[in-house]
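Sequence, please.
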């Protein structure tokens, strides 16, 4: 990525070439045996099951730094584990903006930020889906390799959605790998951020998680392939707001998105039947007339529009075996998403933990957060933060990345301020 390309992600223009890493590039028998020993020591090996760490998924990582901090190990690095379907390149814009925000707000020094592949995404389809402990071991190993090339004094492990079901395992294994490392730099893990994360809620609350997740993915595909006037209007409104904020990189990105949406609106994909296309055009006209005056009618018309277009999206997605495999993996991890991490693993977490909920999250409703999430889930954490974001949907980090980065930077600053020897304290309630 050149400096000009980096500017499309954020308002900083002095980025170094991003560093890309793949777990399979450095995987060998010695690393495998070392990880097996760590898992044995931490008593994470599943009882009565064959556990041998076979060939790992091809986890990838994107590391972002700048010409000002390249090679500088001082400060706090932030590493993101995203939700299902996400690749390391999908989320590079998130950590690029996060890096930019940390420097712009000048709250702390961030030598670099990084993002990993999701365990349920196109990067990691080379082998069957491993168990949660195996996945965490592979992810922790990749992070430890990143730390050799990109040292840091401290690290924050951030996660979103499905990444939150894995992050607690990752923290414990990574902590042990850092301790056993021969390198002089042994960064402290200063906190775990679990943004709208699975693995924190009882099964009864999100038993229909997968159908909702698939519905949202189909809706996103419809917005991308067959944008409505509402999508165009909302992009225009968002672009106006971002122009006022002065974020030049985000302005360029939104201008490109708007240009593409307007072109697709004027000339939809040719796979639509003529009769369907005629009805979609009629609905678009009705939406235009109702926009700004009758939001309920707009929502009804959009729902009808989605239902008309969904079969064509199904056909387009079914055109590749990769998408089908991702959906199969999504079904397999459903049990993990709705099952909390083992109590013994949470009880061994000593660093600060932030549990973040979104008010309009359709998967893990923010208004149920206080009632459903165990406030004592991390009893030995030095400080738990319960953070609630007003008007924030599940995909908020992708919809409004600058705002998400601002939330995260504030949480990181709070975690850094917690003394290493602080005894567990009452949870701190935060509202954004």
């Amino acid at each position: 990525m050149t400096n000009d390309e980096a500017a499309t992600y954020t308002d900083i223009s002095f980025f170094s070439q991003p560093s890309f890493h793949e777990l399979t590039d450095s995987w060998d028998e010695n690393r495998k045996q070392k990880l097996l020993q760590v898992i044995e020591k931490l008593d994470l090996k599943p009882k009565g099951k064959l556990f041998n760490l076979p060939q790992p998924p091809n986890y990838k990582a994107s590391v972002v730094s700048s010409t000002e901090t390249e090679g500088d190990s001082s400060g706090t690095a932030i590493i993101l584990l995203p939700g299902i379907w996400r690749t390391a390149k999908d989320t590079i814009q998130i950590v690029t903006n996060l890096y930019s925000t940390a420097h712009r707000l000048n709250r702390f020094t961030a030598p670099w930020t990084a993002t990993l592949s999701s365990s349920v995404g196109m990067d990691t389809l080379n082998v069957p889906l491993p168990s949660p402990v195996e996945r965490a071991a592979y992810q922790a190993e990749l992070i430890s390799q990143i730390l050799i090339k990109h040292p840091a004094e401290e690290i924050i492990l951030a996660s979103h959605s499905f990444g939150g079901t894995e992050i607690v395992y990752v923290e414990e294994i990574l902590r042990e790998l850092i301790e056993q490392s021969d390198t002089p730099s042994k960064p402290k893990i200063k906190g775990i951020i679990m943004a709208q994360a699975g693995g924190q809620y009882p099964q009864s609350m999100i038993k229909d998680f997968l159908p909702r997740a698939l519905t949202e993915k189909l809706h996103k595909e419809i917005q991308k392939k067959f944008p409505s006037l509402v999508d165009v209007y909302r992009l225009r409104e968002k672009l106006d707001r971002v122009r006022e904020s002065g974020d030049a990189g985000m302005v360029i990105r939104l201008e490109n998105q708007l240009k593409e949406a307007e072109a697709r609106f004027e000339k939809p994909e040719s796979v639509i039947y003529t009769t369907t296309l005629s009805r979609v055009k009629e609905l678009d006209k009705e939406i235009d007339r109702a926009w700004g005056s009758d939001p309920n009618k707009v929502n009804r018309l959009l729902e009808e529009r989605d239902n008309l277009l969904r079969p064509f999206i199904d056909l387009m997605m079914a055109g590749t075996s990769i998408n089908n495999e991702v959906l199969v993996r999504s079904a397999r991890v459903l049990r993990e998403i709705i099952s909390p991490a083992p109590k013994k693993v949470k009880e061994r977490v000593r660093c600060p933990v932030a549990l973040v909920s979104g008010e309009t999250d359709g998967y893990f409703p923010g208004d149920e957060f206080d009632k459903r999430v165990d406030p004592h889930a991390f009893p030995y954490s030095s400080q738990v933060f319960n953070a609630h974001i007003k008007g924030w949907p599940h995909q908020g980090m992708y919809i409004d990345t600058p705002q998400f980065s601002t939330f995260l930077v504030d949480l990181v600053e709070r975690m850094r301020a917690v003394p290493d020897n602080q005894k567990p304290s009452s949870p701190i309630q935060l509202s954004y």
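The chain has a mean pLDDT of 81.
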